[in-house]
Amino acid sequence: MSAITQSQRSLRAGGGTAEDIRDRNLSSLLGWLHRDGALSRAELTRLSGLNRSTVGVVIGDLVALGLVSEGPAVVSGAGRPSSVVVPDAATVAIAVNPEVDALNVGLVGFSGRVLRRARIPWNGPVTVDEVVQAAAAVVAGMTSDTDVPWRIVGAGIAVPGQVRLSDGLVREATHLGWSEEPLAAKMSAALGVPAQAANAAALALRAESAFGAGRDADDLFYIIGGASGIGGGAVIGGRLALGANGHAGEVGHIFVADNGRLCHCGARGCFETEVSRDELLAVLDLPVAQADFLAERLRVSDDPEVAALLDRYRGILRRVVSTVVNLFNPSTIIIGGFLASVIDGVDPADIVGESIRSAQEGLRVLTGSTDVDLLLVGAAELVFSELIASPSVLMGGTQQP
Ligand SMILES: [Zn+2]
Question: Which of 2, 243, 268, 386 gives 20 to 30 Å between its CA and that of 262?
């Protein structure tokens, strides 16, 4: 089970009114369909633990809400005929990811499917208002396609910085030059749908946890290196660790070096100031615009300066990974972004080797997705997890005839 399905775990417990039970059952089935895509009635019955007649009623409700459609009953194997239930393909979240060098916008459907995407390169710093206007223009273009009756449930924004989850206020996004910006509120006003924002690395973790390498991991730690620094997060016992203010997982600010470089957070010797993508690009003489070739160039380089830097980076990463293994005892560590290139060809046992031995038992070290859609899928999870938590509340008032 992954963080995205955490609501399903609590669904089986607890009583409440008939209305509560109905809502929980709607959530449960929609959650499985989001996670796995199309499923037969028989599979939904098995996965949800509900009885067949209840599953039939719940599917009827989901069809009435326009969230799923159901095909004719088919026989598969020795079982009785069972119809296939498919999540609605036109129900989408708008996903927005402003980065230092570009704005990424997408329409994302159930099951993390990116149906439309656009990338607008930037030249220099951008304001929140410019990002909001550009995103609204891109979305207007995408949804003008009248062949598809898009039903937009909301918008999710992945921000390289610290974001207050309750209202999507960007507390600080140093690399974008933003501070105390009501990004979600402005985006919501411009797009005309509810909008939420969260830290980009935490959303990349949600995407990995729901659909990627961390899909079946209940105890997972994620570290991702990007253009704007290093972030990450933890899934503990199937739940995403948010922290009191939603800022848990700032692994980039783990202290790694005495007398280290000054970090924008005010401290010295933080992981993300001692290990950076731009330093790797510089030692390889690779322009930022060609950062996509970083992994390949690292692999073929025989420059001793490059080897020495990689050696230093691996030593620091080993210390960071050992720290999180000792703290969280994860079953899975996912290392993504440019950090995946840093550990390319390294024995995973070597990366976790400084943590306590009993915590290393069964520990998997995996490479994260480098898919450009990762952050769009993660941003959309903000919207879909809310929809799945209360489908009838969110869709009841906006249901189309
Ligand atoms: Zn720092």
Answer: 243
